[in-house]
Each structure stands twice: as C-alpha cells, then as structure tokens.
Amino acid sequence: MIDNSVGMRGRGEFVTVDAQAFWLRAPGEGEIRPVRVASPGPGEVLVRTRFSGVSRGTETLVFTGRVPADQHAAMRAPFQEGDFPAPVKYGYLNVGTVEAGDERLLGRTVFCLYPHQSAYVVPADAVTVVPDGVPAQRAVLAGTVETAVNALWDAAPLVGDRVTVIGGGMVGCAVTALLARFPGVRVELVDADPARAEVAAALGADFAAPADAAGGRDLVVHASATADGLQRGLELLRPEGTVLELSWYGDRPVTLALGGAFHSRRLRIRSSQVGTVSPRRADRSYADRLALALDLLADPAFDALLTGRSRFDDLPDVLDRLASGRLPALCHLITYGEE
Most buried of the four, 47, 122, 226, 319, by CB within 10 Å? Predict the structure, then answer.
C-alpha cells in the first residue's frame, strides 16, 4: 500500500515524505521500495504522482536487461538512479500535482521525465505544466508524442505525401496520429496484429497487414523494431524515397538485403532519436518540444494509445507480463492512490 502521508508545519513548509519507488532489482525481477523524499529546496518542487505510463518497448528492454553495454550512457533517463543492467530505477512518463516548492506551480498538474515513484522532488524547470484541456492520464503520453514530434521534424513530410508507418506500438501510433492531421497526407499504419486496425481507425488512418501494404510511398516511418519491418519499409518506397528509422533494437543485430533495388532506386535510411532536438529545428529547445507535445495532446484521439491500467503496487507483475507478451498493450497506465 502506498503511504500518501505528508507532514506540514505551515504554509509552504513541509517535512520529509514517505514515498515508494519501482526498482529493477535484477533483469526480470522488479520490486517496490520505500524511499524518503526530502523537502524541496530553493528552485525545487515536490510532486505527488497521479499517473505514470509504461513505455512498453523501451521499458521491457530495460526490464529484461537487454540494453547494450555501449549504450548505457545514451539510454540513461533524466532522473534514473542506479546503472544498467540492474539495480536501476527507470522510467520517464510521470504526471502529478505540485504540492510544495515554487509558489507559481503550487496545485498545478505537471509532466516530468521521472521514473515510477509516488512522490519526488525535482528542479522546478524539470516539470512542464499540463494544459487545462489535457486530462492528466492522457498527459503521460507527452514523452512519446515528443518523440513523434522530433521524428516528423526530421522527416519533414510535405503536403500530399504518401506515408506509411510500420509498427503499431506507442511511438508508431503517436506518429500516425500526427501524420493523419497533415493536410493532404494519406497515412497507412502497417502492423502484423490485426487488432491494430481499430487503433488506426481511431487515429484517422488506414490500416494494412505487411503483405497488403500500399507501395510507391514517399516516406516510410519504421517503428516495429524488427528486421522484417525495416526490409518491408524499403520495399514500399518509391525511387529516392526515405525510411525514417525510429526503432530501438537493444542488443539484437539487424540483417537487411541491400542488393537488388536498394542502390538502383537510390533509397535512403535515416535515423531519428529523441535524445537530440532535430537539426531542422535547431532554434527550438527540449522544453519547447515537450510543451508542443502537451499542447497536441488536447486531441482526444490519443486516448486510443491508453490500452490498460493497473495500480502502482502491481507494477512488478505488470512489467513481467508486458515483457513476456502475456499482457498486450500500447501505453499501460499506472495509477496512484484512488484514481
């Protein structure tokens, strides 16, 4: 049971908080640990978590200990504790209420790139206020939509482009949702799971199985984290078309057939990664990008990405089931307290 108690001496003055955090004790073994959170100092805020989200692809790689050694530094989350493969406290989709600290933020609902923890203290500039028109539970998607924004800054689709997104996970669906709102763009979501057709329809996109996907595409965004998906993306391109690669493969090698039409059709594969703001938007900051993502989440279509919810106490079992495939999900919502 989460202890939500907070001692209060007076206006704006708090004692330490009893909180709980999810830790990966060893690959495949998660646990809830107690933690004491100190009072916020100058320029800091105390946040009481309302919801966090499990980013299924990345977090199951972390949970199973499959982050490559040469990527340990690149994969660190902003407020991660411990080191890969374990023990480590990891996560980055957290929405809560500011309960102490900077008076300008008191009582505001905020998003923070913080792990799964019931309460925490961070610098005030590490939180972003959730707009009034965005429900708190939908706001956990901000980190994923931020990735999609950066991908489309990299891809720079044009009016009327024919675009395919391969891979109907969290990132692929977030990219699909944004592309479906581009003028004149007809976007097709491709996934091996026919159940993703319902999600595609909710996002305003077409759907196809890999074998039935439309060809002659100007742009393919690949997010299936499979070699077969990347290969199929190349096959769907028009001459001089581009595959934008968003997948994170962990420690798995990727094999492609780059003979045949790859060179004669002058095809391109380009990577995109949210750790760097796209060079096409060098004038924008990380804070600008995240604020834009939260504004875009005013669209209720994004609710299609929230496919289940569990209590924080059950998170070790939830991640085990997500990693094994026994629990299918896009973004699995973790609830704290009574919500």
Answer: 47
